[in-house]
Design brief:
- The protein has 15 helices and 16 strands.
- It is of the alpha/beta class and about 650 residues long.
- Among the domains are: about 170 residues, no CATH class; about 150 residues, Histidine kinase-like ATPase, C-terminal domain (Heat Shock Protein 90), CATH 3.30.565; about 120 residues, Rossmann fold (3-Layer(aba) Sandwich), CATH 3.40.50.
- The strands form four sheets. The chain has a five-stranded mixed sheet. A five-stranded parallel sheet has the order 13-12-14-15-16, sandwiched between helices. A four-stranded antiparallel sheet has the order 2-1-4-3.
Amino acid sequence: MRPWLKLAARDRLAWQQARYAMLVAFGLGTLMSSAQLLTDYFRERTQVETSVVQAVAIMQRQAARAIFDIDASLAVNVVDGLLEYQPVFSVELRDAFGVMLLSKERTSQVRGDDTIARWLFGDMEEYRVPLRYYPDEAPVGELNVVMDSTVLAQNFVSRAIVTLTTGLLRNCVLALVLWLMFYLTLAKPIVELAQQVGAVKTDSPDTIDGVGRGVNRRNELGLLSYALNRLLAGFAQSLQQRDAAEQQLRLHQEDLEQRVAARTVELEDVNLRLERQCELAQKRADDARLAWRTAHSANAEKSRFIAAASHDLRQPLQALQFLLGALRKHVQGPEGRRLYCNALVSANSLQDWMNTLLDISQLEAGVLKVRRAPVDIGLLMRSVAGICQTQAAERGLEIRVRAGGYWVDSDAKLLQRVLLNLVTNAIKNTVEGGVLMGVRRRGSSLLIEIYDTGVGIEAKTRDEIFTEFRSFGHESGTGIGLSIVKRVCQMLDHPLQVRSNWGRGSCFAIEVPEASPAPPPTPVPLLAGQRIQALRVLLIDDDPQILRGLGALLGSWGNDAITVSGARQALSVSAEGVDLIICDYHLHGQGAGIELIESIRLRAGRKVPAILITGDTREDLLQRFAASGLVVLHKPVSPPRLRAACNHVLKSASPEPA
């Protein structure tokens, strides 16, 4: 027998069936025996009570006569007759007055353990029977009979034990018979069938033979053997097909090996070409990384140049502004005033040109930041018109504004720069007529339009007007103004459109989102009209030209200007009597202007009014300027703006100590 066919006795079906059959038979036998015992119990108890009542009824007449006739011998016969009945334990005769006439009891017999009998039938039962000599008269006495129930119960217990024992033996014999039948009819044939299946050789389909020999074909085991034979036949067929498939697979494998060998030669050649291409691609990638690092370095240099240009280009222009402001008082005669005005216009043009260059450099460097807020477009357009009014008047042109009361969501500074470039471009390309700035609604947005009556733009060059350094118009220019307009509109996400008729004029339109009006800001009085004179002003700047120009300008206003070129000199000057401090932020090698102003105030023991001037517009510095609480002016600063700032800080100066 194969090892896997060996089963433990407790795991065999015959054993399990016998165990279950014994449990069922024992349960059923116990239930039936219990029912039989219960019936015998009630029948035996009824029989005991009936026998006692009958015996008492037989002796009742004799006992009444013995008491009535006072016959002692008859009384003894009655008592002895009752004691002859085995269950009777004692008998008493009493007269009508309760006097004991005769009493007799049986000696108790010891019969072993009668606990079960006493539990079933009780211990002693007493019967009191009144004795009447004549039925209609009063009792002449009383007969008391005490019965021992255990005497009768012993027989019942003996029969019960016999009944239970025979029932248990019967159940065991029944379980054994069932186990033997189940083993012979089911378990043994299954084991034989399993042995036949285990003897089948699975390594060769030719050795597979049928199973189920000796099994009854007409029952369920026959069906099982039939199913196994079909399964084995299918398995044999599968083995044959497997052998055929293996043969085909070997043939295909040989063919595949030949193909792989040929393909390997081809792949080696392809790999060689790919390695050469990878080397070439790696070289190109290295060149690209080198170019990227070079471009990144150039961009960093460009950013540093922008930061330097933002400060250095403003320095001489600021000095020129201050010197022109100081020169104004000394200009005499019409010719002198004409020359002064031409110089002032040239300085303003230079300032516009520098701002334009800085704008486009900042656009390319990506340093311009958009700060959106509600903007009063009417106020903004009127300010642009005011700035360009002088230029338009020189050409005999008129600037009109039709703005309404609209507010837009945009960056006020950047949008003003766009409008300035568009209006300036319109003035340059218009010979007669004028420029119209208007606003109208388009859906949920607003359309800002700038019309001019100039020469217009040809259709073939309309797409090129926003190209840098390309000028198309009545007058030549730098060709970068409209390029800045396009880039800033893209930053602001304001679509830009242009319409033009050659010889009739052009229209530039900007679509902006509408916004709710912002609360009016607290006005800051700029008292440009007041005269600033007889003041002791401390001027601090490391640029000699700006220092001379600013000193001359304040001197022309009638003030005593103390000029120092650095922090050390400023700290050496006595702060007593100083009415105002005007300080540059960048003092090369000597710290920043904010700290210097605080040091001077600390020495003076009071909060001296101060103005900070800078040409640096970096975002981090702007935040620092705002936190300092100082009035900050960005270069170039015009003389009127400087006068207004001086009036403001002097008026709002607090007398409390620093």
